[in-house]
């Protein structure tokens, strides 16, 4: 199966790979996995006092499409408010990366990862 | 289609694989397309279809995870094509750590020691989960079936890890 140029670009030069310090109170983490392919995705956001996502990092074990989807999401969420970031849809990711139908679940995983990170932040900051 | 019925074996997780293999050969013989060469077009097509069903059924029944999934599907719990993300954070953290351990193997001065360690961890946890799966399926109640579905999801991650580990071992040998 041929990957699109954008997937290959993100796969070869993934943006924002890594992790923030676990004990940083401004950091929240979303962990999601896809049993069907065994992919595991961790997405972290660093949120400013006024609720803006200042930085994001990810670590994904999975196929090229899963890595590209999470890499793209970390780029997209930077500078967004939590509510804006929560509006990111898997269909937007799939369209941007030109994912074929069999790889749509990778974009679902990335959407669920950012949602999980936002939920983690909100649960820890009581909003 | 009920694969257990097709193979005339009890619809349960704990199956006698030798019996399954014998039944497979019998069925394959009975429905071999050659037996229907003189039959009508319709009979030939049905035989081809049945031969395909028999192969699918055998493929599913002999593998524990696919067998468990089929059993659950017959009980109304379908998980084979689900696209829902798995969100058990503690479990996924542990998966991440195992993936990191696997990632260290190729750069290690003693890769085989790390392979042994990973292999041991994966096997041990897989065996624990397989036992829990057998227990949950044995109960044959909806609540335990849902638990079984969750155990299958976890086991899939371990089967994937094992596959990754095999790839690393191959890479090491090359």
UniProtKB/TrEMBL annotation, chain A:
GO annotation, cellular component aspect: cytoplasm
GO molecular function, one term: iron-sulfur cluster binding
InterPro entries (alphabetical): ISCU, NIF_FeS_clus_asmbl_NifU_N
Gene3D superfamilies: 3.90.1010.10
Pfam families named among the record's database cross-references: NifU_N
GO biological process, one term: iron-sulfur cluster assembly
Domain NIF system FeS cluster assembly NifU N-terminal, first and last residues per copy: 2-125
Family from the record: Belongs to the NifU family.
Function: A scaffold on which IscS assembles Fe-S clusters. It is likely that Fe-S cluster coordination is flexible as the role of this complex is to build and then hand off Fe-S clusters.
Entries under PANTHER family matching the protein: IRON-SULFUR CLUSTER ASSEMBLY ENZYME NIFU HOMOLOG
Protein name: Iron-sulfur cluster assembly scaffold protein IscU
Source organism of this protein record: Rheinheimera riviphila
Record lineage: Bacteria, Pseudomonadati, Pseudomonadota, Gammaproteobacteria, Chromatiales
Gene encoding the protein: iscU
From TrEMBL, chain B:
A family per Pfam: HSCB_C
GO cellular component, one term: iron-sulfur cluster transfer complex
Highest taxon above the source species: Bacteria
Signal peptide from the UniProt entry: none
Protein's GO biological process: [2Fe-2S] cluster assembly; protein complex oligomerization; protein folding
Keywords, comma-separated and alphabetical: Chaperone
Coiled coil: none
Domain J: 1-66
Gene Ontology molecular-function annotations: ATPase activator activity; protein-folding chaperone binding
Family: Belongs to the HscB family.
Protein purpose: Co-chaperone involved in the maturation of iron-sulfur cluster-containing proteins. Seems to help targeting proteins to be folded toward HscA.
PANTHER family: IRON-SULFUR CLUSTER CO-CHAPERONE PROTEIN HSCB (PTHR14021)
Subunit structure: Interacts with HscA and stimulates its ATPase activity.
Name of this protein: Co-chaperone protein HscB homolog
Source organism of this protein record: Rheinheimera riviphila
Gene: hscB
């Amino acid at each position: 199966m041929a990957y699109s140029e954008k997937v290959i670009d993100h796969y070869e030069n993934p943006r924002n790979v890594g992790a923030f310090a676990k004990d940083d109170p401004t950091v929240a983490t979303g962990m999601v996995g896809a049993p069907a392919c065994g992919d595991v995705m961790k997405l972290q956001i660093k949120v400013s006092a006024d609720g803006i996502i200042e930085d994001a990092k990810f670590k994904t074990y999975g196929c090229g499409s899963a890595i590209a989807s999470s890499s793209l999401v970390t780029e997209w969420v930077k500078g967004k408010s939590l509510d804006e970031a929560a509006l990111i849809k898997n269909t937007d990711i799939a369209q941007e990366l030109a994912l074929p139908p069999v790889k749509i679940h990778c974009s679902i995983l990335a959407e669920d990862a950012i949602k999980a990170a936002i939920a983690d932040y909100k649960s820890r900051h009581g909003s | 289609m009920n694969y257990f019925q097709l193979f005339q074996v009890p619809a349960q997780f704990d199956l006698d694989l030798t019996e399954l293999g014998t039944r497979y050969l019998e069925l394959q013989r009975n429905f071999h397309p050659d037996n229907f060469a003189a039959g009508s077009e319709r009979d030939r097509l049905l035989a081809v279809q049945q031969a395909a069903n028999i192969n699918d059924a055998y493929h599913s029944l002999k593998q524990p995870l696919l067998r468990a999934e089929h059993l659950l599907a017959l009980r109304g719990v379908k998980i084979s094509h689900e696209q829902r993300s798995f969100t058990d954070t503690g479990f996924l953290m542990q998966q991440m750590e195992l993936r990191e351990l696997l990632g260290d193997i190729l750069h290690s001065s003693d890769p085989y020691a790390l392979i042994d360690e990973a292999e041991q961890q994966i096997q041990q946890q897989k065996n624990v989960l397989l036992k829990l799966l057998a227990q949950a399926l044995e109960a044959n109640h909806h609540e335990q079936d849902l638990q079984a579905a969750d155990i299958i999801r976890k086991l899939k991650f371990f089967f994937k890890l094992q596959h990754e580990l095999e790839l690393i071992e191959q890479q090491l040998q090359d």
